[in-house]
Design brief:
alpha+beta; Jelly Rolls; Arc Repressor Mutant, subunit A; 2 domains; 4-stranded antiparallel sheet; 11 strands; 44% helix; elongated
């Protein structure tokens, strides 16, 4: 990596409080690469050769079985993937591809494991990363099993509104087919579900969404902290 590239990634959360010699040890053999949209970065079943960290852009974590595919999560700047496979030296359980042009830091897995053993601060950072990933999985499991598709979409819209400063009008951050997979439904089911939300004054024009009655939408969604609060 060039000196300017190294400086641009030292601020990443995984390096917080990590001994500088270990940060240097990880960055010296690392790569900072630019990828166009729709490039597969990680393939399910392959060995975990690198820890990937999103520096700029957005990636989709997904999985496939036979002719079916589902979105597991969408990650933005500062997020690392797939940490568990790297730490315990196992194959990737998920695949990852870029949704938009992105810059991704690739740190060799062997170096990550060595620093994990030698640097307590880095081990704690990785433990936090794994803990947050685990809690996200639990929340998503509850969301999928306890809610209808209509309730999942309503809650997702409220969360996206909050992420945009409680905006009542905002653009979907990715294509509708990705949103459908993210919510565990087929694209045509998502379309029908948006149609049902017309009664709650939700309007969709392309990728633009307008929430005409947030109170009614919130009553339908019935959000709870243990599923819907990103900070919990």
């Amino acid at each position: 990596m060039r000196p300017d590239e190294v400086d641009s990634v030292r601020h990443l959360r995984i390096f917080d409080c990590v001994d500088q010699k270990h940060v240097d040890a990880m960055l010296q053999p690392a790569f900072l690469q630019k990828f166009p949209a729709h490039v597969e970065l990680v393939r399910e079943g392959d060995p975990a050769d690198f820890l990937h960290v999103v520096v700029d852009g957005q990636v989709e974590v997904f999985a496939a079985y036979r002719d079916r595919e589902t979105t597991v999560s969408v990650l933005g700047p500062g997020s690392s993937f797939i940490t568990a496979a790297v730490i315990i030296d196992r194959v990737y359980l998920k695949s990852v591809r870029t949704l938009v042009p992105s810059r991704v830091l690739l740190i060799p897995a062997a170096v990550v494991r060595r620093c994990f053993e030698e640097d307590g601060a880095f081990a704690r950072a990785m433990a936090v990363d794994l803990a947050l990933a685990y809690r996200t999985v639990v929340k998503e499991l509850k969301n999928q099993k306890l809610r209808s598709g209509l309730e999942r979409l309503a809650n997702w819209l409220l969360l996206e509104s909050a992420a945009n400063g409680q905006a009542k009008r905002f653009a979907l951050p990715f294509e509708k087919k990705v949103l459908a997979a993210r919510l565990g439904m087929a694209p045509e089911v998502l379309s029908r579900t948006f149609g049902t939300l017309v009664a709650y004054k939700v309007k969709v024009d392309g990728r633009t969404v307008e929430l005409g009655d947030v109170v009614a939408l919130r009553k339908l969604a019935a959000p709870i902290v243990t599923i819907d609060d990103p900070s919990s």
